[in-house]
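Hi R.,

Here's the chain you asked about this morning:
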Amino acid sequence: MELVQVGEKTYYIKNGTNIGIYQIDSENVYLIDTGNDKEAGKKILKIVEEKGWKVKGIINTHSNADHIGGNKIIQERTACKILAHRIERAFIEDTILEPSFLYGGYPFLDLQNKFLLAKSTKTLEVEENLPEGLEYVELKGHFFDMIGVKTSDNIYFIADALFSEETILKYHVFFLYDVESFLGTLDRLETLKGELYIPSHIAATEDITMLIQSNRKKVYEIIDLILKFCDRTRTFEEILAYLFNTYHLVMNANQYVLIGSTLRSYLSYLYNQKKINYQFQENKMLWKQRD
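And here is the predicted structure, written out as tokens:
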């Protein structure tokens, strides 16, 4: 982990999940996300303590395990408060909700891993408890009520609102909860006028224009792929296998629930857009393009 100062009061720690730090006074800081596990939390605390700071609070952009994994140990050691927005609070306070939501039922043991199941912690609503100098921006789509955070240095931490070119080329189907909201968030990102943007899993950049275009292009590519494959009736499992085979993805328990949940979100989007329909035959749910 490397600490980088990017504004008068704004820093971030380069990591698999970038960690924001905002200095609210000479002694106290707020963190923006905490990485994927207890070890990440320990490393964050070490960096903060070496600077002579104290963690006053944590802002979680959303509740995915790789963003809240360090919450518990940091809160236990500092008694800091944790802020999140709306539904994300419920997922942080009862983390069994994430693998349960993804699987659609009680998650079998292979899904109860640190990538999908963090330690639960208590939270407060971000809207009512943000310190002076910080603003939140709604960035729905990737997850229920995900937010970004803008600092007084005009720097935006934009969470998982954008996926890297490398991720898009390697995985193609990145996780989305709400396709329509994600496309709306891409439009919103184009209106922001920040000095610097720090996505959670991409290097900090002054210009996110190309990333926005790449993310939007891939979403529409997947929409077209699903529509063409549904030229005749298809089951969900057939469409899922088609996506994996088309993009040469490797199936495992985590990928099954992550990409499976994402595919269901695409199917919902296409149905709501009146581009596909469903029917039941022989007790199977079948999807097909609308005539």
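One quick note: DSSP finds eleven helices and 13 strands in the chain.

Cheers,
M.
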